[in-house]
Amino acid sequence: MKSLHSYIGGRFVPGKRGFADINPADGSVAATVTEASAEMVDEAVAAARKALHGEWGKLGARGRATVLYKIAEGIEKRFDCFVQAEVADTGKPLSLASRLDVPRAAANFRVFADVIKIAGLEAFETELPDGRRALNYTVRKPIGVVGIVTPWNLPLLLLTWKVAPALACGNAVVVKPSEETPATATLLAEVMQEAGVPDGVYNVVHGFGPNSAGEFLVSHPGVNAVTFTGESQTGASIMRACAPTVKPVSFELGGKNAAVIFADCDFDATIAGMSDAVFLNTGQVCLCAERVYVERRIFDRFVAALTERAKSYDLGWPMEPATSMGPLISKVHREKVLSYFDLAREEGATVVIGGGVPTFGDGRDSGFYVQPTIFTGLKESARCVKEEIFGPVCHVAPFDSEEEAVALANDTRYGLAASIWTSDLQRAHRVAPQMNAGITWVNCWFLRDLRTPFGGVGLSGIGREGGMHSLNFYSELNNICIRTE
Ligand SMILES: NC(=O)c1ccc[n+]([C@@H]2O[C@H](COP(=O)([O-])OP(=O)(O)OC[C@H]3O[C@@H](n4cnc5c(N)ncnc54)[C@H](O)[C@@H]3O)[C@@H](O)[C@H]2O)c1
Ligand SMILES: O=C/C=C/C=C(\O)C(=O)O
């Protein structure tokens, strides 16, 4: 049985207590993991601090970019290892990990290497009424030791989305991957060693959230900034933990995202896109559309076509190439999703398809699969329309006018992503800016350009990452004002 340990100051360090890393496809134990104690988190933060004062701190942006390209190559060299580790931890289909998670991890390092090389700085020529003149210019410095806490749904993708810009900016990091998916962050440590990343620049502490490595890290006085992706409530706890030392935070949190489908959409392309938007990664993507609003004229046709799509998913073993939907991440998460399925029925939903657990007659019956599920008929005030479920499920409701669609889409305390499906370009331009969300896609979903701002409003987060926005979070700007006259 494989044992996964924390990685501190360039060494794998076992913790005293162990916990199981479960494969959600059949409930088997994929690996054992040792938990980092408070002392080990202290050591990781100290190792990161030390690295900032060593050769890493002296390397310029070009030198760091070269290291980031090597990390990207290192991930690609071990492509199959990363895919297998991610599939074993998450149960996601091999095809998905191969086309999304692992390629994006390498892309994250390449893009931020490119961005740091071309990033400019601000400068102003200042003229005061009394005749004095000055040149103001800004320099970018690392923020220091960055604490990175990440979730289980896209483990390597979301971890590297933060590690890459943090390293590009010259920081040292201590990462706390989800206890559900510890493998790829650990494997990345080996890539870091091979790429010549100095000891202490990348540290991993394994464990849980409250009263464990997660809390020890975010409340640590030696951590200069915290970046977190996960549930909104966890974000609130982390914010409280960061308050005493006034750490800057960047939060990418939950969503209850709307899709708005107009009758003039390209119907087949919309069904294909919406099938991903609802069911990709078993609906466990923060950007997934759980609220789907469809213009009444095409409502029945849309529901029927999306239902056909739901039927077409192959809930196979994750390592089978044909598998298109895996299990949910854990028993606990499946219980949560199933409790929402029960609640939807109590709230008066019509179950169009799904709503339960599939049976297989093999080991997958001990895994955490659920059926792809579509509901209709709920009131807008229903909890299943308001709360994030995070499973392969959506509620579809009709609308009659553009104004009504915008109001329905925006009636949420979240605000991460929205999608609009229409062939009318003017309508797209009119409606898109009205969406109360950080990201609005038109005739597509989860189409990413890593230079663009990514983040949410309301309960969906604080701040934006991506391109220059990441550089601004992961660095301190020092403005220098020189009197010239
Ligand atoms: N907005 C985004 O970009 C985005 C991306 C992916 C997932 N998510 C959200 O993440 C959630 C699913 O992921 P999850 O269940 O792993 O989230 P989670 O909040 O339960 O856990 C995320 C991480 O936080 C740690 N943690 C938990 N409590 C903590 C505490 N008190 N202090 C420090 N660390 C703590 C966990 O151990 C884990 O590593 C969903 O709500 C989803 O919408 C958002
Ligand atoms: O589950 C959430 C997905 C987040 C995606 C990103 O952060 C990204 O594509 O950069």
TrEMBL record:
Q: Where is the Aldehyde dehydrogenase domain?
A: 18-479
Top-rank lineage group of the source organism: Bacteria
Q: Which UniProt keywords apply?
A: NAD, Oxidoreductase
Kindly list the residue ranges recorded as spanning the membrane.
Answer: none
EC assignment: 1.2.1.8
Q: Which Gene3D superfamilies match?
A: Aldehyde Dehydrogenase, Chain A, domain 1 (3.40.605.10), Aldehyde Dehydrogenase, Chain A, domain 2 (3.40.309.10)
**What does the similarity note say?**
Belongs to the aldehyde dehydrogenase family.
Q: What is this protein called?
A: Betaine-aldehyde dehydrogenase
